[in-house]
Fold this sequence. Notes:
The protein is an alpha/beta fold. It folds into two domains: 9-103 and 220-273, Rossmann fold (3-Layer(aba) Sandwich); 106-217, Rossmann fold, CATH 3.40.50. The chain has 13 helices and ten strands. The chain has helices at 19-28, 50-66, 77-82, 84-95, 105-110, 127-132, 134-142, 156-161, 168-184, 202-209, 219-232, 234-237, 254-265; strands at residues 9-13, 34-38, 71-74, 100-102, 120-125, 147-152, 190-194, 214-216, 246-250, 271-273. The strands form two sheets. Strands 4-3-1-2-9-10 form a six-stranded parallel beta sheet, with helices on both faces. Strand 9, helix 13 and strand 10 form a beta-alpha-beta unit. The longest helix is centred in the N-terminal third of the chain and has 17 residues, at 50-66. The two termini are 16 Å apart. Bound molecules: D-glutamic acid (DGL). D-glutamic acid is lined by residues 13-15, 17, 43-46, 76-78, 126, 129, 157, 195-197.
Amino acid sequence: MFPSAAGPIGVFDSGYGGLTILKEIRAALPEYDYIYLGDNARAPYGTRSFDVVYEFTREAVKTLFERGCHLVILACNTASAKALRSIQQKDLPGWDSSRRVLGIIIPTVEALGSITKNGNIGVLGTPGTVSSGTYDIEIAKFFPQFRTVSVECPMWVPLVENREYDSPGADYFVEKYVEELFAQEPDTDTIILGCTHYPLLIDKIRRQVAGRATIITQGELVAASLREYLARHPEMDAVCTRGGNCTYLTTENPDKFTALAGTFMHTPVRAEHVTL
Ligand code: DGL
């Protein structure tokens, strides 16, 4: 059903956010080939139901497999929270049980142990990620003694997707959600930016947090975890091509994607249109 030859590593997000993960993965593992797929035409995913996020993510993963990927990273917390398990358990066995789909929530949670001092963790995420409870569940599994508070930040993804992340208007929503978190738990010492779009707002978030907590972004954590995964799975490493190339696919207008993605990646990007 899918091409059997070795292929690029697939990286998927609802829109531009996964580029913050791709950038770190490419810096850590520059020798591999990658395909980035942004479902920009249907972003944001964060306010969509479980069934819709699962169906959209499933279509994206299938497209990446059809384009030759054997390994796909869901560089999206919402998709990792709402679709990963169903794809792994329901779809992969029927499609091709040798292919793999990995999420980004567990590598993020695993890092907490060496960062927090008092075990008070704050999670900022999309409504979908927060309401799924995935961070609370995974943190409780790895570190039962930690306490987690989560805040939904529904306006942050639209600010990024609409290129307003640097605007004065963004300040209002950064203050609102960060202060909601500290109001729930003033002793929060570690904050997970649990959405791959949020690093675009990091300067404003840092200013608002003002040293009250350590802020965790996911790119480097996911890159380190992928490196370990490939070292532990030589059979998967063998089917990932090495050429240092990256192809960009978007479900939106490719010129629009090209313009904004270039500013995310700090390097020129040329996107192609894809229909899922
Ligand atoms: N970037 C995605 C995440 O990490 C979600 C953005 C969206 O709402 O589409 O959750």
